[in-house]
Amino acid sequence: MGSSFSSSSPIESSAGAASPETGLGDLPESCVASVLVYLDPPQICRMAMMNRAFRGASSADFVWESKLPLNYGDVIERVSEENDGFVEGLCKRDIYSRLCTPNSFDAGTKKVWLDKSTGKTCMLVSSNGLAITGIDDRRYWSRIPTEESRFNSIAYLQQIWWFEVDGEIEFPFPAGSYSLYFRLQLGRAHKRFGRRVCNSEHVHGWDRKPVRFEVLTSDGQQATKQCYLKEHGRWIHYHAGDFVVANTCRSIKVKFSMTQIDCTHTKGGLCVDSVLIYPAECRERLQHF
């Protein structure tokens, strides 16, 4: 009876033939893409390496459209003024990748890019894009080439009585909160026998009176801050203030300055590299910037 049962059992007969197993690779690309849209860009790129279905889904335009700033078209228009065919013929994934690369504009004095993880907009303004009092007088200032700057050049102050650095930018920043920083260093760095050495010979005057930072926007926001410059030999991002861009704002003008105009004493030995505008929620990453 037992042999009779085994010969007629449907379970055994079906098990005798190998049946294909269903796996993640059998999921429709549209379903996979609907899940990927909830991940951040680095996670999407990692998932794309799993199999063909995930690789195909990770290229879907609607997935990357959700990662781009809402006004990315305005950002592209601003940057592409000096870059013909900037994103011509590119899919949304490649547009995102292109915007994550620092893109120069305004005659190379500014760079803008998207943070790879969040899609937030970041910007750098070089010392060449700032109005610096006395910059053309070699008795006070000099331009120094260096690999320590993303613009390969800094402004170095030897000595001056009236210190003032001003800047202005008008740009279609996507909605959000932004922090503005001056990247500065006390002392002039150079290489000696392959090692970095910082010369503090001209550093003086910064401990007597604080430096004043100010940020103003075209919609009436204002922030001021004062601090002493004390630490020698390393680049520091000095926080000048924050501003907020509303959803309804197509383009905002931001003015910023750094001054120390007490003429009772001279000050010198300062390197001015750039001004950084960075998403406020990402400020903890500055130590790796």
Automatic annotation (TrEMBL):
Compositional bias segments (type: Low complexity): 1-19
Region span, Disordered: 1-21
Source superkingdom: Eukaryota
Stretches of the chain forming a coiled coil according to its record: none
CDD domains: F-box_AtSKIP3-like
InterPro entries listed in its UniProt record: F-box-like_dom_sf (IPR036047), F-box_dom (IPR001810), PP2-like (IPR025886)
Boundaries of every F-box domain copy: 21-67
A Pfam family recorded for this sequence: PP2
Protein name: F-box domain-containing protein
Organism: Erythranthe guttata
Organismal lineage: Eukaryota, Viridiplantae, Streptophyta, Embryophyta, Tracheophyta
